[in-house]
Amino acid sequence: MNLEKVIFGFFIILAMTLNFGFFIGDLTDPQQHDVTELFAAIVVNLIASVLKFGDRTQVGAIHLAASLVADLQLIAAAILWAIAVHGAGAGLTAATTASIVSLAGGAFLANVVSVILLIIETAMLRR
Amino acid sequence: MTIAATRPAGGAGDVPSVVFLFLRRMRAPLIVLIASYAIAVLGLTLIPGMDADGNPWRMSFFHAFYFISYTATTIGFGEIPYPFNDAQRLWVTVSIYLTVIAWFYAIGRIFALFQDPAFQRVLATATFSRRVRAIAEPFYIVCGYGETGSLLVQALDHDGVRTVVLDIDAERIHEADLADLQSSVPALAVDASLPHSLVLAGVRRGHCAGVVAVTNSDAANLAIAIATKVLNARVPVVARSESREIAANMASFGTDFIIDPFERFGAYLGVALSSPSLYLLREWLTAVPGTALAEPIDPPKGDWVLAGFGRFGRAVGENIAKAGDRVLVIETDPEGAGLPQAVRGSGAEAHTLEAAGVRSAVGIVAGTPSDVNNLSVVMTARELNPDLFVVMRKNRIANGILFDRLRPDIVMQPSRIIARTAFGILTAPLLHRFFALARDRDQTWANELVARVAAITHEAVPDTWTLHVDRHSASAALEWAAAEALRVEHLHIDPADRTNRLPVIPLLLARSTEELLLPADSTPVRPGDRILFCGPREATRRQIYSVNNPNVMQYIVTGEVPSSAVWRWFARRGTKPAARAG
Fold first, then answer.
1. CA-nearest residue of chain B to A35?
2. Predicted ipTM?
3. For the residues A4-19, what does the mean pLDDT come to?
């Protein structure tokens, strides 16, 4: 067992689970989507991206690309939230909540790709 | 080529990417930074506070991130939106140390990374490779930037030819970077004898016009020549070699030109002794155009004293003996040099010079590998016999000022000979052929040619150039050549007045089937012919003007003026430069 692999896998899977936790629930109901979970998802996603830096293999490149997509979508969701709550002053309406959550949903897909890649990589190593 | 097929596309091959290396090294500091921000922001949102009216209030992520952003970067706007309570202040204190230290760590790592020699090497390699790829015209790869390499690069740059420099010594690469050159010369400190270095320098690129191997080591030059021939057989290789075995090895796999400075100087000196006019001709035609013409030399016949019988002395001695003169050798180790009858000594002492017979000799050759020794030999010998003809070997350019003071008749400087020869081979291959053919001609032939060259130049070194009768460089002349109506004389008729001749001399006409030395005026010119001319620069311009202008060419060949109004305008344009120069 390799500690580096454990940490790498831990952050990638945690990024996906946190992302999923924020995403799940009624699309338009702000009560079912906790902003703290969005924050945690962003932080863990950023760390996962940094962990993928510097791997020049083909799989490594797609890993990093998927992670960057997730970062981009989650940060867009966070900016949308900040504008809705603090900028425009309108609060979390059903429409903005739907936008934020669907952005997080896209990030979730990217994170799923990351995890699939992780599984494929591991399976190939076992062989 | 199988090598090309197995490499990934992009050409750069094994160059580690700067961006990836940077990101990999920055992983730890970036994670520390993200984690410290996350902890500080999360803490602020969790600690209960109060708003301006005393109601319980919690900081939102937006405010917390804003606050930490300006606190961590030590900008510090104060406690907003509401003043903090003690619990919040305690947490902010922790956050400040946490985030500021994380920033220092990250910035420190960036600086350390840029100072890292390994990273700098990767950076230099990447920059070099990018600059080589940006060259969109023919270029030469010069391996070795010592005295020879720097002279050659300067000369090529002066002619507007692009070069790429490789040298194993980083100091020399700094010199190349600082050199006062017109075009950008990519230079990299790397062992040029490794094939990968040559690939980096662009040996496989279509624009690569040649590789020049002039490092100090014959073995490295050999390795460069082999690697070049394997990597790209099309590219011509010019290599320096000071040993006959290595030269033979280089020739065996098709190295195009092998330059041995000692052999070559020996041959020059042989020419100088047997045919001073031919020697003078070479001096004139290979010097920098526009500079003063070299004075004719008049080497005497008789006995020569030769100090130092190494590679240089041996080559010189052979050629003096070939010219029919006797050679008296002084050598520190006569047995080692294989010449037991030689006088033992360095040649710097008066008694060895006298023992060798310097008083009755006509010339002296100071050919030891030490400049100080050579200077001493010449000064002592001149005291004994002031009328000596002096040939000196100069090993270092830096000693030039001392040699100038002594005014020797001929100076031999290995680096300059190699640079000049390589330059001639690369930029004027026909001139190289011209001298090869001229060597077989007699003294009278050379005398006549020297007189002709002297008549067209005004005390200044003439230009030499090659006129290629093709679509690009002589479109109008090509039409007449294709019609079999063009003769050599047409190429040096004054475009302004058909009865006048331009002051140029056709030295050599080369076509695939034959080479004609000093082609006669009546020689027919065929499409694809290359003709070597020499003459003042002004004449070059007028010749290029007429061979590319159909009307002028018609006038020159047939004497007919095509259409009067247009022709007059062309004729005026053609004569203008002459009027200015006159």
1. B61
2. 0.88
3. 92
